[in-house]
Structure formats: C-alpha cells, structure tokens
Amino acid sequence: MRFSTIRARVAIVSAVFALALIGSVAVGTYVLVARGMRAAAVETAGRLASASDRAMQNAIDAAYERANRAGLEGEAARADVARQITAEPPAAFEQGLVYEGSFSLHVAEHPGDDLGLAWSIGDPPHDPGDRSRVEAARTGTPVRAFPGAQPLIVGMFVKADLGVYTTHLPIEIPGLYAAVLDVSYVPAAQEEILDGTRLPMYILGSIGLLGSLLIAAGATRWAISLIEDLRRTADSVDVGMLDIRLPEEGDNEVADLARSLNRLIDNLQRRNEAQTRFIADASHELATPVAGIRGYVNILRAWGAEDPALQEEAVSAIDRESRRMARLCSDLLSLIRSEEQVEFRQIRYDINAVCREVLANAATRYLDKGLEYTGPGDGSLWLHGDPDRIEEALGILVDNACKYTPEGGRVSLTTRRSRDRIIVTVADSGVGIPEADLPNVFERFYRSDLSRSQETGGFGLGLAIAKHIIDVSGGTVTVRSVIGQGTTFEVSLPRQRGK
Length: 499
Ligand code: ADP
Known about the structure:
Elements: H1 6-69, H2 74-87, H3 91-95, E1 102-108, E2 116-121, H4 130-139, E3 143-145, H5 152-157, E4 165-170, E5 178-185, H6 188-238, H7 253-304, H8 308-339, E6 347-350, H9 351-365, E7 372-374, E8 382-385, H10 387-403, E9 410-418, E10 421-428, H11 449-452, H12 462-472, E11 476-482, E12 486-494
Parallel strand pairs: 7-9
Antiparallel strand pairs: 1-2, 1-5, 3-4, 4-5, 6-8, 9-10, 10-12, 11-12
Helix pairs in contact: 1-2, 1-6, 6-7, 7-8, 8-12, 9-10, 10-12
Bound molecules: adenosine-5'-diphosphate.
C-alpha cells in the first residue's frame, strides 16, 4: 500500500478523526456518568450513616430499658448497656441495614485504651481506617473516608471501581469511654451500571468507527473514480486520441477541472488540425512547382537537343518554377520564425520612421509599376514595441498593396494617434478583395480568386505572418475592400509597453 496516495491519506485522516471523535465522546460520556454515580454513592453512604446512627440510639435506649426492667440502676445499668451493645450487632443491622452496607463497632472502655473491635457485620473492608476512627472518637463528630477508588479512565476499560465509602460515626454508649461505628458502603449497584455501559459503548463505537470509515471510503472512491477518468482521458490524449472528452456533469471541483481539460483538448485538437492542414497545404504548394520542373525536364530530355526554342522555353520555365519554390520556402521560414516563441522587444520607437522605411523599400521593388505613394509625413509618432517585427508586418501589407494595384495606381501608408493607440492605415487603389473572402484572408494559404489569376500572386502566407506579429504586439488588424476600387488594412497598436 502506498501512503502517498489520496486513498491512503483520506483513510488515515478519517480513521484518526473518527477515533478521536468517538473516543472523546465515549470518554466524556463515561466520565460524566461515573461522576454522577460517585455523587449518588456519597449520598447513599450519608443516608446509611444516619440510619445506622438512629439504629444504634434505638438499640441503646432498648438496652437501657431492659437493664432497668431487670432492676439494675446507676453504674450497674450502664455496664449492662455496654455489655449488651458490644456483645452483638443490634437487631436492626441484622434485619435490614446489612443489605446496604457493612458495619463494625470499635470501643475503648477506659481513657487511654485503644479502640478495639467489638463486633462487625457484613464483611467490612480490610482497611482499618485507624486514624479517621481515632479522629472521630477524639472530636465526637463523624469523619468520612472514601479510600480505594481507581481513576475513571481505568474503570472505563477494565472494571468500574468507585471505592469504599466509610463514615466513622462516634456513638455515646453508657458505660464505655469511647465508641465508633464504622459504616461502610460499597457502591456495587453503581459499578454494575457502569460495567454494563462498557459493551454497548464498544459496540456503538465500533459501528461509528466502521460507519465513518465506510463513508470516507465511499467519498474517496467517488473522487478517485473522477480522477481516474481524468487520467484515462489524459492517457488517450497522450496517444493522439483528441476526440475524447471528460464528463463535465456536476457542480464540483472535479467537474471544473474536467471543463478546463476539455477546453485544453479542444485547443489541442484545433492546433493539431491546423497543423495537419498547414502541412498538407505546404506540401501541395511545393508539389506544384516540382511537378512543373519535372515536366519541363522530361521535355528537355525528349526534344531539347533538336529544338533550341523549346529548350529556351523549358529552361526559363524551370527557372520560374524554382524561383517560386525558393519564394515559398522563404515564406514558410518567415511564418515559422514569426510563430517561434521569441521575445518581442519593448523599445520606444518612431512609427513614422518605420513607415517611411517600408514605403521606400516598396517603391524600389515596384519601380516599374509607376505607383503613386503617400507616406506619413515628416513628424514623429512614438510608441513602445519591437520596430523590426512591426516593420516586417507593415512590409507585408504594403507589398500586397503594391502587388495587387495595377500600374499607375495609388498606395498610401499613414499614421495617426487615437487615445492610447496608434492607427496605421495601408490603403491602395487596387483590384480589391471579394466580400466573401474578407473573413478568410488572414488564414494561411488563403488566396482570393482575384489574385490567383495574377502572375504576381503569392502563397497566401503573408497576411497570416503579419496578423501573428500584430497579435503578439498587442495590436489588431482589420480589412475593408471594394472590388475594383481598392483595399484598406487598419492596424491598431498600443502606445504603451505591452504585458
Ligand atoms: P499572398 O502571398 O498570396 O499575397 P497574403 O496572405 O499576403 O498572401 O494575402 C492573402 C490573399 O489576400 C492574397 O492572395 C490576396 O488574394 C488577398 N490580398 C491581400 N492583400 C491584398 C490587397 N492589398 N489587395 C487585394 N487583395 C489582397
């Protein structure tokens, strides 16, 4: 058994908790009941002492009467009373009191004598109780002594023993110097009640302990089964089964965790699908120029030697297709690099300077198209971020604007401040994007039909790269377009340092 598992820990904690709870309830109850029993024993012992006192007085009076009736008087009568009382226990003891307790009479006939036993009845305790007895004789007042009680906790587990309750009762007996009646009471009935509670207490305690362990085990099994579900699902996801989901029913922490994990699996599945689509698209895009090149190589092999014109055409086609492949590889590399988890810098830079640079580069590349360029002007507009990555994103947008705008058209790159953001607008007077394509243009490999026919058309990766850069910079990009009139991309960037 592993002690670090939830099951083992819950079992240990609940067992300790149940033991502590049931133990303290049991001990508390026993101690309370036992205290009550002790108090009852003290009271009974007191009553027994009073009854014994009365019985002794009655016996002395009766003895006196008998002495008088026998014609004895004075010293002789007192000596006769002393003889009668010390000879044997008075009848009241034999007839009833002996069932309640045990008694012993100790007398001293003359001053200076020790108290000696006159009689005893009912098996008095062995303890002679000398000191208390002598004390009672000396002071003439009853002395109580409760010796022999064991601690209550021992009584709880072994056998109840509330002790012996003895009262040393001084009695004045004519003809004797001193007399003390020891009245002892053993609370056997109370001890029996206490002993009787032990078994039910054990049984109830065991049932309670077992019950709480069963409840704890049930609750643990329920929680563990949910965790097992989570584990099985995680294992399935681990081996690539992404269509599996965890049960989300219930309003508890495990259901919350299941919901979070399901969201995580959703995301994984989406990423996985996107990645598969991306690989399929990339392979397809690469396959097209490769097929072209192989076709022209076959043509060259078959007829290239005899037909110089055909040879020239095939070589330039191979050149075109291989350039296209090189461009695709470079685009793919840019995309992968843009999505790598590299830190974006956070420096203060002038967006207008970046825009001027982007525009100047585009103008150089598209010199032959005779486009009319509008830039952001001479002033500066500062913000925080990574100027190189933003230049890359704006470069893609401006490149597209130039690419999809016919000769003599207009391309503008302007900036403005709007509260805590900088808005960069890239507008052209080009072919435009059909409305149906607008929601998809930022997807990888997505190309509008209008651009497919264009010689200059790319692979549909540029806008995906640009959007990713802008997203990571804490910005947003939107597009609007009118077919035949032009397209406008609006980039909104935060001015202050991003998180
Ligand atoms: P590409 O390399 O094909 O240009 P992009 O991701 O940059 O890939 O653009 C995706 C598609 O969006 C393009 O194929 C094109 O159809 C359309 N597009 C992007 N910018 C413009 C624009 N300024 N004018 C017209 N169409 C555009």
